[in-house]
């Protein structure tokens, strides 16, 4: 364990402190699935250890209880998005968690909600349009959050819902137009930033 932690500590770091995914993947390929080790690594709360934990945890054994524990330990946007994409999106509890985490005040718990919505929108899955239509009032409710990594995720969710199909495009465009007329500059930003991508 000490040797692995030292190896992870010595990895190349991006300017924002994130690690390069290919470096993590190489170590993960060497280790294989190791559910117990993944839990220990996550609790280290370092970007590299958490990135590796996401790759080596046993997804089939990743429970809702673990999801709740892990989401509270996120402190970086890249880890947040990897966590939701790889571990939460495929789960049957993904939709309720998106609604639940949006109500949380902590930055990365709330970001997790909206990155999850966006990821579900662009992935092929069996979710009905109603699932995404019900996300839109949540997007509206939290469009005022001025924190960079939250507002970007809220905007991302709105855009990707609109890109899912023609029906959702109409609903997302209507919401974007409503937000763009707000007196709140953050809400206006969410309603206008790269919204042309849904056309």
How would you describe what is shown here?
The chain is an all-alpha fold. The protein is 67% helix and 0% strand. The chain contains 13 helices and no strands. The protein has helices at 2-9, 21-31, 35-43, 47-56, 64-71, 77-88, 94-102, 107-122, 129-133, 136-142, 148-162, 166-180, 185-192. The longest helix is centred in the middle third of the chain and has 16 residues, at 107-122. The protein is elongated and about 55 Å long. The termini are far apart.
Order of helices and strands: HHHHHHHHHHHHH
Could you report the average pLDDT, rounded to the nearest whole number? Answer: 94
User: Helix content range of the residues, please?
Assistant: 55-70%
Share of residues in strands: under 5%
Low-confidence runs: none
- Number of helical segments? 13
Distance between the termini: 50 Å
> Could you tell me the number of beta strands?
0
Please compute the radius of gyration using only Cα atoms: 18 Å
